[in-house]
Amino acid sequence: MSIQRPALVPVPDPAPDPVLEPAAGPLFRIERGCPSPEELAALTAVLMAVTAGPGVAPDDTARKHQVVALWRRPERVTGFDGPRTWRAAA
Q1: Taking Cα atoms as reference points, which of 16, 40, 37 lies closest to residue 27?
Q2: What's the rounded Cα separation, in Å, for the pair 18 and 77?
Q3: 49-81 in b/e burial notation, b at 16+ Cβ within 10 A?
Q4: I want to staple 85 with a disulfide (CB 3.0 to 4.6 A). Which of 7, 16, 57, 81 is the partner?
Q5: 60: helix, coil or strand?
Q6: CA-based end-to-end distance of the chain
Q7: Per-residue pLDDT reduced to its tens digit, 49-85
Q8: DSSP 22
Q9: What element of type H or E holds 46?
Q10: Is 4 helix (H, G, I), strand (E, B) or coil?
């Protein structure tokens, strides 16, 4: 009785990520004006963020939770409502 072991097959390397490869040409072209390198960097960051798709923004998780104040404003709370209101609260 012999046990057959599965053959070991080498796994090929995955294809390189096309996003990480350098572009063949410029990604965009400036039609008018002479932007500074900082302005070009800001424009590139905005365009990359827009093309990344929904749900990628770093503060996206913060928007899921609604902020609610956990304190009360005493001036807006009515006073004593009546002698039997304690029963409604229970």
Answers
A1: 40
A2: 60
A3: eeeeeeeeeeeeeeeeeeeeeeeeeeeeeeeee
A4: 81
A5: helix
A6: 75
A7: 887 766 655 555 555 555 666 666 666 666 667 777 7
A8: P
A9: helix 37-52
A10: coil
